[in-house]
Amino acid sequence: MRWWWFGPSVTRQELERELVAMADAGLGGVEVAYVYPLATATTEFGSDAFLADLRFAAERARELGLSFDLTLGSGWSFGGPHISTELAARHLHWEQREIGPVPLQVPVVSPWPGDDLVAAYIGAGSLQEQPESYERLPIVAGQVIIEAGEGPRIVLLGYARRTGQNVKRAAVGAEGLVLDHYSAAATQAHLRAVGDLMLDAVPAGLVGSVFCDSLEVYGSDWTPSLPSEFARRRGYDPLPVLYLLTINGPNAAQLRADYHRTLVELYEENFVAVCQRWAARRGVPFRIQAYGTPPATISSYRFADLFEGEGWGWQRITETRWASSAAHLYERTVVSAEVWTWVHSPSFRATPLDLKGEAHEHLLNGVNQLVGHGWPYSPSDAPGLGWFFYAAGALDDRNPWWPAMPELTRYLTRLCWLLQQGEPAADIALYVSNEDLFAIMGRAQGGSLNTWRETTRRIPGAITATIRAAGLDYDLIDDDAVTVTPPDRYRAVIIAATTMILDETATWLQKVIAAGGSVIMIDSTVLVPKAVTVQIAGLADALAAAVTADLKISPPPEIGFVHRRSEDAEIYLVINTGPMTRTFGVAPRTSLRSYEQWDALLSGRVLQAGAVNEGIELTLHPYEATVVVLTDEPIKKPSADPRDERRLPLTGDWQVAYDNEPAQPVDLPHIWENEPGRQHYAGAATYTTTIDLGSIELAAVEGRAMIDFGDCEVYGGGSTADDMVGPSYRVAVRGPVGEVAQVRVNGIPCGISWAPPYRVEITGALRSGTNEIEIIVYNTAANALAADEHITRLAAESEARYGRRFRMQDLDQAIATVRSGLLQVPTLVLRLSPRV
Asked: pLDDT, tens digit, for every residue of 349-362?
């Protein structure tokens, strides 16, 4: 879990309590992030007291078996008071002036302190009739020299300007400018001021990794050394033609491609590689989310030790896919994703099922480690709900549904472990033409400097959705990666929306074809001999002709899979990402003879087994996953569950008790929010009833008995909403309990239900005669959040004292769709022996 320290104001007692709570919940570790204050700061970032608290937390985490990762700076992106104006991020700023034909000598002045004139140009035309070409103007003795001309002209001025960006969400004492990520000197200054300080306080043996969050250095496209570095790397001086960054003209695409490739190289060499080498000297791995600005490519990851992504959506290109592709290409066994970044906004609204559903989307994108976003540190005596982050999930033990968290973490830990076995299996490489992206990106062209974002704009989502619907998986691949990728690794390479391609890549594509692979062209103008050219509508047929489906799924489209290949087994994680129960067949491409289906959620037990050639049929409930393992081992079929069952709706008298209140009669279905005074209640309620079972009836039970809470109700959700900030994941169902149900029968704890199918095994707890059924229902904290004025007050006080460093988001939507309680009448299900 990302662990937010606000201020950074913490106490040892609360650090201890929260670490123990994390360990008890089954979390694997923490990634400490130091952010803005929510009260008067009791210490400053970088102070001796702060560093001592870090050391204490690291040592206690080790004792509890938790990993402990450090973010290499407060807030994001890296920077602070140690970054001087000379080391701060910069960007190019362009200004136009229309002049007449008379000669001029214009003194060079700075429009803003720190602005430096890089170059000046002139062209015949006006603001209405823009010039078709420009010439560079001489700058002599601090003056721009403009000779006489004919008619109106445009002077174009290019300034190098500090972006002025300060560290976002900074802790007290960490305020300051964001560093120049193209400058090794700036990176080293930051590591000396922050990194060394932390690792001097917290020994490397206590640190799992040091971490860099997503790159958000807005608009940064300049560094003082860029002209000389460009000339050295590209073989020509950029200054005579630098205006082509903002003006269309001959060779503009090539200049822009060369320019942005130079920025990528400077970022890789002067930021990522510098951080990695420093971390290696300090004895810790360097982990990074390498996307955003600066314009990091897929292959930029290779300069780090550990790769991380974020963003859900298994049928589209996400930052998670960006990272997992790099990990597969550059042979990193473990690749992580920041998960739950915007899960079911606002804070405290997310349910365990939301967390499960979004985690599935990340796993389907090829990652095998999850970093939750996140756990807000909060003092035990904080008013109201306490402290929490301005956005994203508040995923700690203040959530009433927290009793379900250990089961969720065990489940996700098992899946992540499984997906770290063997090797990833993907048949398709989807080519990302960096040259094309470099030629169109940049603020001057109305685009961004985010290579991932420009990729998603250029490559239609229908391509990746078609690949997945065809029963195939893919890696993204770029020009740098082809140099380390064997041409026979992928069965097909898709070239989409490509107009520029490097010679080395063109040669590699020919080797792919020579090795028996296919190259499929979509909306591309580059020449690749023997390639197949199709429209997007024909991609499915082209894929079918090029490669047999890895896992043919007959239907539906909501079913996704991820495949790992080990020495003696094929492992498929198959997931229903939709809100309906689905029964479907799967046909793996394999020569292995036998299969087993494993229970993914609870036990790992074999649910069914058989011969692969006899067909495999699966049934998955909404947002349910299962594991299918193929081997040549002899088939060992599990004992079949009895098919006959008796369903006994629990329609007797029910009582409900909230917290320490006396029990009172209640009719089911029961919604807490409909009761007077309960709209803002967040907590638990205990429902009780009895049922009589005769000895003959109980003897008929063979193996299993369960409480079935009912089916889900499908409703809107599961995608971004227009009135919410960020891509907020929400499942598209409402369960029969709101949100978690813990079952005891005759005082015996039987289990907890929080995801479809909403059932709890009670085998062995029933007895002849009267049986007491006790169901404890836990809701979310969203109801309490809707009535909590304290966080708004804390935010206002923080702004008054420290300036606006954040803004709380979506608080007005806290209980828009909340339904708490037992929303259906539960049923006792008895599996009967065949003779009954």
From this structure: 999 999 999 999 99
